[in-house]
Amino acid sequence: MTGAEQLAVLATGFGAGVLTATVGVATLLSFPVLLALGLPPVTANVSNTVGLTPAGISGSFGYRAELAEHPAVSRRVVVTCSLGSVVGAALLLGLPSSVFEQVAPWLILGTCLLVGAQPRISAWVRRRATGPAPEPRHALSPLTTGLATLVGVYGGYFGAGSGVMMLAVLGFGTDLDLRVLNATKTLAVLAGNGVAAVIYVFVADLDWPVVALLAAGSLVGGYVGAHVGRRLPTGLLRSLIVVAGVLGAISLLT
């Protein structure tokens, strides 16, 4: 890589780190950059996963107060995403890289719409409910746990928009505040990327200079993103998540 390309990858890592801890579409920024550098798709994918893992670490550290509010949910998300990521990593190494790339834009678009519509849909469901008001859902049901595991599988395989997908799953499956959901989403990305990264280090073809630059940038970006995400108003944060996800899905389709 030239000096300019190295700076571009470092800046991409920082931007992707911020996105990891805010709107959850980091791969939609970093993956195309790695492809533009000439990396083969699978090499770019695995190098991107390993390089962005530090963003999940620093972002989760930045959100530590939010994660401590519902530790049982945090633990469940870590377990489900870790297990799912193992399956996703195996699929990536055993299947053509184009399989999920073809459906990823539509998955992202669908979940973006769900994230945007979730407050109104949840309010409508509550209005239609009969009997005493239900207790707030502060734990993951078996259905939500299963869907979170599937998001972990997707994250281990391709990962683009997996944070948005996790937000949609947790948003419909729990009654947690969006700031807590965003923190939990960041932890989920860390769990999925971390497990997949360990596998890729031993069995995949990585571009180590790219990994190092992404990691350095994303470590700082994740921590900055956590502070930004905590301070954004809920409505604005939700809108940014939807807009970023839609733009990212469109970029994958073109």
UniProtKB/TrEMBL annotation:
Top-rank taxon: Bacteria
TM ranges: 7-34, 46-65, 77-97, 146-172, 184-203, 210-229, 235-253
Major localization listed first in the record, in broad terms: membrane
Any Pfam family the entry gives: TauE
Keywords for this protein: Cell membrane, Membrane, Transmembrane, Transmembrane helix, Transport
Compartments, as annotated in UniProt: Cell membrane
Keyword Acetylation: no
InterPro entries referenced in this protein's UniProt entry, alphabetically: TM_pro_TauE-like, TSUP
Membrane topology term: Multi-pass membrane protein
Protein family: Belongs to the 4-toluene sulfonate uptake permease (TSUP) (TC 2.A.102) family.
Name the UniProt record assigns to this protein: Probable membrane transporter protein
